[in-house]
Amino acid sequence: MLMRTDPFRQLDRLSQQLLSNTPGTWSRPTAMPMDAYRDGEQFVVSFDLPGVKPDAIELDVERNVLTVTAERPPVATGEHVEMQVAERPHGVFSRQLFLGDTLDADRIDASYDAGVLTLRIPIAERAKPRKITITSADTETKQINV
Questions:
Q1: Which part of the chain is the SHSP domain (predicted)?
Q2: Residue 17 is part of which domain span?
């Protein structure tokens, strides 16, 4: 199944983001909220990425780790721009999910619509229930659900 991210890694990332800001300024850490649920024979994971263009999103799978990285540039840039209120996070967003052995990471389907990245991860065939045939010396055959 889907495993949650490592809380210590998230705490480390949060502290790095807070401490790496320019002296005298503070901005909220970049967040990538998500929902994850099982829908029949697949897991569905949805990430909120408002204002991110589809070509600014990267998905990488290495072993059982799925990494989602996205970048949202600042809206107002330029020599004469002076921000008055900056509550919307910008910059690079990153989130890692640890995928269990029961998920088929080779067949992940990704779609992006209205600022929501949706991943559909099928349950691996080896993890689905199956029947095993048992034969005995007296030639009776039985099927057992596993």
A1: 25-137
A2: 2-145
Calculate the alpha carbon distances from 50 to 19, 30, 113 in Å.
25, 12, 10
pLDDT at 28: 45
Listed residue (74, 67, 69, 71) closest to 27, CA to CA: 74
Average of per-residue pLDDT across 115-125: 93
For residue 135, pLDDT beyond 60: yes
| Count of domains for the chain | 1
The CA-based dihedral angle spanning residues 35, 105, 61, 13, taken in that order and rounded to the nearest 10 degrees: 30
What CA–CA distance (Å, rounded) separates 133 from 146?
10
Q: What would the pLDDT profile of 95-119 be if each residue is shown by its tens digit?
A: 999 998 889 999 999 999 999 999 9
Supply the CATH number for residue 134's domain: 2.60.40.790
For the chain, the 3-state helix, strand and coil shares in percent, each to the nearest 5, are: 15, 40, 40
Cα–Cα distance, 27 to 72 (Å, whole number): 14
CB 57, CB 63: distance < 8 Å: no
By mean pLDDT, which of 15-19, 60-64, 126-130 is the weakest?
A: 15-19
